[in-house]
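User: Hi! Is it possible to get a structure for several chains at once, not just one? Here's what I have:
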Amino acid sequence: MIVAQRKPFDEIKNLIKDYKKILNVGCGTCVAVCLAGGEKEVAVLNAELDMARKLEDNPIEIDGFTVERQCDREYLEALDSKVKDFDALLSMACGAGIQFLAERYPDKPVFPAVDTTFIGVNQDVGWYEERCRSCSSCVLGLTGGICPVTMCAKGLYNGPCGGTNQGSCEIDKNQPCAWFMIYERLSAQNRLDCILEITPPSDWQNQVPRTVIQPGYKKPEKV
Amino acid sequence: MKSGSNLEKVLAAGHFAFTGELGPPRGTDADEVRKKASHLKGMVDSVNITDNQTAVVRMASWAASIIAIQEGLEPNYQMVCRDRNRLAMQSDILGAYALGIRNMLCLSGDHQKFGDHPQSKGVFDIDSMQLIGMVKGMRDDAKMLGGTEMEHPPKMFIGAASNPFADPFEWRVHRLAKKIKAGVDFIQTQCIYNMEKFRTFMKQANDMGLTEKVYILAGVTPMKGVGMAKYMKNNVPGMDVPDELIKRLQGVDKKMQADEGIKIACEQIEEFKEMKGVAGVHLMAIEWEHKVPEIAERAKVLPRPVV
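Assistant: Yes, the chains can be modeled jointly so their relative placement is included. Here is the combined structure:
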């Protein structure tokens, strides 16, 4: 899932300081699961903003609405009748959701209330770790299911570098060396031949905005 | 001859090579480079010019390399993958060659987190393995990495590093084999202190036939004292400093520890001269350039051959 973190309160407060009527839009998918921008987080942030603005003698009318997925037109539709009543929108979705919201209501200022952080896994409630950089050219089949682009601090395709420190990365003793893990796993599976060959330079595909159209589908002429 | 560099000629003629290291200054003082170079002139076959080592901004490696050439030294131009993408790397290589640089060392580079700009974006567009292949492609096929052809390709003598001591030990010789497959001509190893482990590594390299395909220069850094030895052991990732070495340094008077460090280094060099598959020594006397003449003298590697 996409993991996000709420922005520092003062930063959010400052972003919307000039607006009186705000709709805070949550998202019920990834950011809800990682406890950053679901219905509950929308309610908490709104209460805090309401209180802070009262104390500053600059009261705010703030409402909340959480859609199932902010990155999906089908669900954004539910907002169409509401947004006209507000001066600005705050979004607690990931960066994609925030942009899709802004795109749908181009007349409304839209502000982010979270920092989108990574594509990661749920290790435990409240504990998430990055696993994927969405590079568009997955090498996990060669690297024992461990991503060198994400998990190696230098993103090396032909590691490990000389900084491996008793299984840790040179940047931090608490960070395992990705290539040490790759070696250990492939060795246990008797598949070290996978990394004997040189992996050629990556065709970096994440340097321009990417579009995916799945087989059997096409982009409609008019949306 | 692939490049015709002095280092290549010395190695090809079967001489035991001896290379040094020079760190460019954090500033624009060319005289600082000249001063360091003056200690190394005539003592080494080639001198590594480091590239923003430990991720700290310094005078460009190619620029300090040119100053070294002016001072009569042959540079080994270091290039790390941390700070440049493939476009910048290739244009720097073309420029470096145009200005007379004939050796280069292809490295990943220390992570930017260690240096004076920990906020910076690490580039790592390609890694050291891919950099070797890129330089080889430029040299032998007169082609840029992207496939376009060039006139007057850079005929570099291509070097890379190898750390026999970092984990996983069993994989290190295979990574060396990959660098050879990528096209490396010579290897300079990480500083060697654990001789037992290095002997094992060299045996593996010999058994796999790798030492017939690449020149291996054994990395030597003399210890200046117990403090440095302990620091290297505990704080430098991938460094293997045995306790016996620290004990030996502790066994002599503090004033004599640096001398003992040089003595240990010279004993190592004597062994390397006889060790199968070792083609020379790379002396990394970090901020100790003025000691190089003494070390070279005591290691009996003088005079340097003229080929």
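Chain A has seven helices and nine strands. Residues 157 and 199 of chain A are 6 Å apart (CA to CA).

User: Great, thank you!
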